[in-house]
């Protein structure tokens, strides 16, 4: 059972960057006015940020890291570990984390590697970097998390295109004796792999001319096999069942209740889905922030982006207890319980 | 949930786009002008939070009328 706690590691800062190019779902001409209204009401996604061709996830993460390091007054040579969590890497190979090590001007003795996860990626990434730092004694680390999902959604697919936005984030962690422990609960169910998938382009189905042919699946859903396919109903059912069940068990194991937390920050998947989880968990609405109306579903970036966008004022110069939950593609899901104390949260960067 | 009338009024409050009285036991979901896949999500969420019953996408495909949904929920509530 992947349930564990890690001592002596503290989150010192979180920064996020988004493309300046804003897209409104009110302008999505594939839908009628009443469909747009229903989509926005149900999913919560009104506006999204979309990169222009050529910009990568690592470009967003890079700018976020430059700004965060400056505000933290951290020296670049002090960073000993860099992990990049994403499903939208610069290249098939090499790993993007290594490119970022060089671009940021970090030491060659900094370890750097990628993790390929989406919606659950922030929670998983936090567990890996904290675990590594605790086990090894590495002092300072950067967790860079984000996705450009809009490049792999067909604009003629109303089941994916209006939902996703792009964002890159960075979280700075430090080895600090007596930092309050961080607890994790991590889960996987690969039997649901087809629920959210880009079917071609990997080794299982090599990209071929056929991969790029657009097909009509149902009216309003036209996509190729290189585009994201999303079975919304399956993901919805998985999320409203597994996530609250796991969370309830997790809270019990670590001896906390919903009352113990100042905030419950969920992956920004879909407003109706998240609200269903919130109600099942009996969290008060004021403890559950949303950034989905402004940024859409930003995949792995959604939790840190929501913290920076919605909680900055409250978290500065204070200590708060947060419960974070990521869930989706894989299927993969996980939760983390942590304290954020005097975290540095620069304003969101627009590129 | 005591009867189908109560079930229908719960459904109708969730669908602000539907005029009250639109839904009847024999109404077919696909015949509603406003019907779209979004409604499937709304129904699944509503039934889960109101009745603690899980309805899958496949379940919704297997039925067409309001009364069939009611029977399905009623049956699962007993289990």
Automatic annotation (TrEMBL), chain A:
The lineage of its organism: Bacteria, Pseudomonadati, Bacteroidota, Flavobacteriia, Flavobacteriales. It comes from the Bacteria. InterPro entries: ACP_syn_III_C, ACP_syn_III_N, Thiolase-like. This is 3-oxoacyl-[acyl-carrier-protein] synthase-3. One of its GO terms (molecular function) is 3-oxoacyl-[acyl-carrier-protein] synthase activity. Residues 113-190 form the Beta-ketoacyl-[acyl-carrier-protein] synthase III N-terminal domain. Gene3D superfamilies: 3.40.47.10. It comes from Aequorivita viscosa. Pfam families: ACP_syn_III, ACP_syn_III_C. GO terms for biological process: fatty acid biosynthetic process; secondary metabolite biosynthetic process. Keywords: Acyltransferase, Transferase. Residues 251-339 form the Beta-ketoacyl-[acyl-carrier-protein] synthase III C-terminal domain.
UniProtKB/TrEMBL annotation, chain B:
This is Acyl carrier protein. It comes from Aequorivita viscosa. The lineage of its organism: Bacteria, Pseudomonadati, Bacteroidota, Flavobacteriia, Flavobacteriales.
